[in-house]
Amino acid sequence: MVYEATASAPVNIACIKYWGKRDTRLILPTNSSLSVTLDQDHLRSTTTSRADASFEAGDRLWLNGKEEVIKEGGRLAVCIKELRGWRKEMEDKEKDLPKLSEWPLRIASYNNFPTAAGLASSASGLAALVASLASLYSLPQSPSQLSLVARQGSGSACRSLFGGFVAWREGTDPAGSDSLAEEVASREHWPEMHALICVVSDAKKGTSSTSGMQKTVETSSLLQERLRVVPKRMDEISQAIKARDFSEFAKLTMTDSNSFHAVCLDTAPPIFYLNDVSRAIIAVVEELNRAAGEIIAAYTFDAGPNAVIYTLEKNMPFVLGAIKRFFPTSEEFEDPFQTGVRDLPQGFNTGVVREGGWEKGAVKGLIHTRVGDGPRVLGKEESLLGENGVPKILA
Amino acid sequence: MVYEATASAPVNIACIKYWGKRDTRLILPTNSSLSVTLDQDHLRSTTTSRADASFEAGDRLWLNGKEEVIKEGGRLAVCIKELRGWRKEMEDKEKDLPKLSEWPLRIASYNNFPTAAGLASSASGLAALVASLASLYSLPQSPSQLSLVARQGSGSACRSLFGGFVAWREGTDPAGSDSLAEEVASREHWPEMHALICVVSDAKKGTSSTSGMQKTVETSSLLQERLRVVPKRMDEISQAIKARDFSEFAKLTMTDSNSFHAVCLDTAPPIFYLNDVSRAIIAVVEELNRAAGEIIAAYTFDAGPNAVIYTLEKNMPFVLGAIKRFFPTSEEFEDPFQTGVRDLPQGFNTGVVREGGWEKGAVKGLIHTRVGDGPRVLGKEESLLGENGVPKILA
């Protein structure tokens, strides 16, 4: 009998950003955040976890075929320990259960998108780890309860335990028991929500978000005002999502992205994630909305120069038309939705971008995706581990 | 008898920025600001004003040889009207005075720095206009009183009526009577304060500061916090100047520049003045300070990509060494101070800029100047007007 489970988990991109911890060990944020879960059909982390009494002592983990050290007391170890503890409680109650909690683990994880894509893989990766262990251990905990564990692995990972539109509530308990993720609306509620990821080249590696956000907490005065306005913004965007009010959703998303990058700039020394290409994408989206006479697209930027542009499915041809025109990509664009391209709306002022647009490759590539579901438990045939408990990729 | 006066006035660069008006007509700011007046030996506006009963009716003004319309009720007209009013009061009291206030004016103004240098010329230009008219009319008003008039021409012009280190007090009177400039310290108090202006190329014309700042007032939530923290910053930088504490002066200057650009980014739609080259200059200055083990340089950016780097005279060789190394200029650098260049401090991490530095001309040119004096009344030989009241340049 092989005790093993494989699960995949999605990437999420926040509309209301997480930036700042009030507790760095427990990963408790200074403000609530809200994200859209992206479709795993396009971007996902997959993780297989296996427990076996015959494994050599000690847990081992491979990420994309490379073994990672599970540091004692580190974030991975904390997640594994918590889930194992819950399994132990079950085993203590039901004596017939196999003692999986006592057996060493072998875990293999794989991201189907290149690290070079500049997408944070820690959220989907940690969520997949938690989902696969929860499945392996047959844990009864709800996704929100599991999100408490994922949160301690990588803050925004907690949001990847749900599909659709997801809030991470900051909570008030100093121990973190109420700092968890919950669904605001399912993907089925608003399936027309699509996203275009613009992968922007950057010569320089930026500040890591982990260290950057604490610098902001320590040195930015403007962060105080941000923390005062985010609760209202959380309410407003939740309502916009429930009402499927794209214009309002978009305004709040762009406002919050700009507010987040503003507090980064207000940090000492200042943190810059947006570069000239990011700025130009903002200008194109703003002008697209102006020329369209309504807000049809919303940009948002995480801790890097890549843009994610949210738009409704029907308006993606306009977004693609504008982006492809000004930012010829170096990588071929394969659109899973076979969306066409529409011309710029009449009255679009092409002067907002530099003459002739940008050089090929300023935007490396485009990824078209949409709102997606939460973690999926996959069949055996998707296992990443070989018989010996070593990733198949290495066998 | 020719009634004429010629005056020159300096450029000023704010350390605590002016951004936002509480009254757009009177130009009353949302916060106090503080600047360093730069040396007129290097950068100046010169203005000649002449009153003559024989001139055709109506005032006329030329800027760099090009006639500008003096719009009824416009900012130029308001300044002229106020000063003429003060002259009228004198004439009413002293009946022997020539009735200059009744005569048409001819005004010629000239900036010795190219508009392309990207330096705001409105401050020095308006200050020179006010100074020349005050001299022509023999007005007894103090520089602070004159600053009330210059302020209505172009907000930050009020600070160019003083040399040294100058505060523009926001004031509380709705009529603006106490929103004026005053000296915090003279140039003689801290003559070692030098400045290096890095003229940065930008493909795109940015948002004008006049419209940009009101967009910020209307849409930025973070501005509220900025307005709360600026008063303390004003006190602290005034104390730093009085104590000649460069490190504190520099920290506050950089913090406020970043805070200003942060609220620009927090504006809807966002306003960007810093580009990738500006960011790189910031990175070089931050790294220079880190590697030097003390704060020897402070960057500040106005509503454009140009950097102004404040440093003490003794440390300019380090600043020049770093900037010239990473940003080869397209224009020859002529240093009026013949300052040498020092190597990067040991331990300077060159990884903060992109490999090989920037291409020639990313920084177009450098201007080395220092703290300077206030407006100067010049001799007749400096007059910009020919016999007929038309600029000599056109004669």
UniProtKB/TrEMBL annotation, chains A, B:
Annotated ranges, domain Mvd1 C-terminal: 195-378
UniProt-listed InterPro entries: GHMP_kinase_C_sf, Mev_decarb, Mev_diP_decarb, MVD-like_N, Mvd1_C, Ribosomal_Su5_D2-typ_SF, Ribsml_uS5_D2-typ_fold_subgr
Domain Diphosphomevalonate decarboxylase-like N-terminal positions: 9-181
Annotated GO CC locations: cytosol
Protein name: Diphosphomevalonate decarboxylase
GO terms for MF: ATP binding; diphosphomevalonate decarboxylase activity
EC number: 4.1.1.33
Catalytic activity: (R)-5-diphosphomevalonate + ATP = isopentenyl diphosphate + ADP + phosphate + CO2
Keywords assigned by UniProt, alphabetized: ATP-binding, Lipid biosynthesis, Lipid metabolism, Lyase, Nucleotide-binding, Steroid biosynthesis, Steroid metabolism, Sterol biosynthesis, Sterol metabolism
GO BP term, example: isopentenyl diphosphate biosynthetic process, mevalonate pathway
Protein family (similarity comment): Belongs to the diphosphomevalonate decarboxylase family.
Pathway the protein contributes to: Isoprenoid biosynthesis; isopentenyl diphosphate biosynthesis via mevalonate pathway; isopentenyl diphosphate from (R)-mevalonate: step 3/3
